[in-house]
Design a protein that fits this description.
single chain; six-stranded mixed beta sheet
Length: 197
């Protein structure tokens, strides 16, 4: 199976801050950790040009869900689909990565899942985009993906949920940031691009 690239950051904080203050405390902590982790990580794990590679490969952000650029996206972590990822395209199902495919999910991160006593407000597309791109950049630069392909052949898109997707009570815990891999020239991939998958 593929490496587990799914992360979850949720749960109440000590004390009883207001919902708004609780969200800001969690968001600030997460972003500080990501900034420190990715900066040091890029510098010390053998990716001398990791930042340049990531910048060149970054395909931007799309939102998914109701009223989003991608109205439907139903791929699980590590799975593939034949449809090209672009505004207006629905991706209702996944396919085998052994067959030619256009995209592959290589990371999923449920930022703030709903719990019994925490019902987080939608943090805004801008904040989700900043967080999601930091997360997807970190995973893209890691050894989970083959370094020889990242420099020139692969690109990634960060998917973030729309406010409607986030607020849906039945799906809120399933409205993560999603990292999607594709070829830079939009050609078909012919195998899983996750190392060990």
């Amino acid at each position: 199976g593929h490496p587990n690239l799914t992360a979850r950051m949720a749960g109440p904080l000590p004390g009883k801050p207001t919902r708004s203050r609780r969200w800001w405390a969690i968001a600030a902590a997460v972003l500080l950790v990501l900034a420190a982790f990715t900066g040091g990580w890029f510098a010390h794990v053998g990716f001398a040009d990791a930042t340049k590679e990531v910048e060149a490969a970054n395909g931007g952000v799309l939102d998914y869900g109701e009223q989003g650029a991608v109205p439907q996206f139903k791929l699980s972590d590590g799975y593939c689909a034949a449809a090209e990822l672009k505004p207006g395209v629905r991706i209702p199902s996944q396919s085998s990565c052994d067959e030619p495919h256009a995209i592959q999910v290589f990371g999923v991160n449920t930022v703030l899942g709903k719990t019994s006593d925490v019902d987080p407000d939608y943090p805004s597309r801008e904040r989700l985009s900043a967080y999601g791109q930091a997360w997807c950049s970190m995973v893209f630069a890691s050894k989970f993906l083959p370094s020889e392909d990242k420099a020139t052949q692969l690109s990634f898109v960060t998917l973030v949920p729309t406010e409607e997707e986030w607020k849906d009570a039945e799906r809120q815990s399933k409205a993560p940031v999603i990292c999607v891999l594709r070829a830079r020239d939009n050609s078909q991939l012919t195998k899983s691009m996750i190392v060990g998958n």
